Inverse folding.
């Protein structure tokens, strides 16, 4: 992801800055997705693994990045409270 774009992006809900998900965070998220235990903030199940994602710096919401394009829709966010043992960055 372009560093200049990352510098200006923020969460559409809380206006919190975002950063790229680290490898351990991404692995934990994808493990929970494979287990079928992840839903979006709108309550829709997340069924496909995420290759790249953004997380708010307060670590509350994750947004997927599809083909280098951040999907920053409030209803597409993934709350981290549903992820057991979510690792520190």
């Amino acid at each position: 992801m372009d560093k200049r774009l990352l510098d200006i992006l923020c969460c559409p809900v809380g206006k919190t800055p975002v950063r790229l998900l680290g490898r351990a965070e991404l692995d934990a998220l994808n493990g929970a997705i494979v287990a079928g235990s992840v839903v979006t903030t709108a309550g829709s199940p997340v069924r496909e693994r995420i290759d790249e994602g953004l997380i708010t710096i307060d670590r509350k919401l994750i947004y997927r990045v599809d083909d280098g394009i951040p999907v920053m829709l409030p209803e597409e966010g993934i709350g981290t409270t549903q992820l057991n043992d979510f690792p520190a960055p």
